C-alpha cells in the first residue's frame, strides 16, 4: 500500500528551548522582528512560485523523486502494490491530507509534484549535541537499527528564486532509542561510555547538486524526554572541503529543526527497537520548538513522505523544499568536535540533554 502525507509546509524556525541547558545562537530575538521576517519571507516565496514553475523545477522535482523511490524499491527487492489504501494524517488537530487516494500507478507528476516549502526564519537553536567536523557522506545509517529513511532537501534562495548549488546540508538526529552519537553526556544513553564520542552514526554533511538538492540515507529518529521526534539541520555556504572528507570555514545561513507527522511517529514507535524505549513520547503539539513555530502562524515544518513499500520496514522517502536567505550569517554553537583522533568534548559538552 502507498501512503502520502501532503503537507503545505510553509515555515520553520526553531527559536525556543529544545532541551534545558541547550546553547542558543542568539539569546533574544524580538517577536516583532520574527513576525516581520516571516511576512517578508512568505512574500518572497510567493514571488518565487511562478518563476520556479516556469523554469520547470516542479516537473523536474516530480521526476527526480519518483526515480529515487523507484531506485529504493529495486534496492530493497520490492514490487509495486495494487492497493489504494492510505494512512490518515492529522497533524496537531489540523488535517493536511487531500481526500484523493494514491497507488503506485498514480502518475509521478501528481504524486511527487508537491513542493511544500519551509521558510527559514531568523536563527534557530543548535541544541547541545551539534558535533563540528562531521563527515561528508550520503549514507548516515552507521549500522543503527530502525525504520530506514531517505530524505531529500531542495534549497532555494528566497532572494533570487534560484536553487542554491553551493550549499552544504549538515544534519543529525538521535537513534531509535533516543541517543545521539558523537557525544558523551548525562541523559544521553550511558554517560560513562566514552566510545560514543567516536561514533558518527546518523550524522553527516552533503553538498547540493545543480538543482539545490541534497539527499541522505538514515533511520527514522526515536525520542527522548521532553522533545518531539526531530532532525537538526545547519546550512553552510562558501565552506572548504578538507582532505579528510570534512568541512571547514564559510558561513552558516540557517540553524533549525525538521519534524514528521504525528500519526507516522506513532506507527514507528510501535515497532522494535523504538518500543523498547520506556520514556514517554512528547507529541509535536507539546513540543516547545514545534509549537512556537506553528502556533498563530502558517508554519508546518514537517516532511512530506511516501512509504517505499507496503510496510514501515520497507522504509520511507521524505522531502522538503527549504527557502534560505543566503545573505544571512549565524554562529551555531557546538559542544563536541570530530577530529582525526576521534571525538573531543568542548566547553559545555557534558550538559544534560533533558
TrEMBL record:
GO terms for molecular function: ferric iron binding; oxidoreductase activity, acting on single donors with incorporation of molecular oxygen, incorporation of two atoms of oxygen. Residues 135-228 form the Intradiol ring-cleavage dioxygenases domain. Residues 1-18 form the signal peptide. Keywords: Dioxygenase, Oxidoreductase, Signal. Coiled coil: none annotated. The keyword Signal applies. This is Intradiol ring-cleavage dioxygenase. It comes from Pseudomassariella vexata.
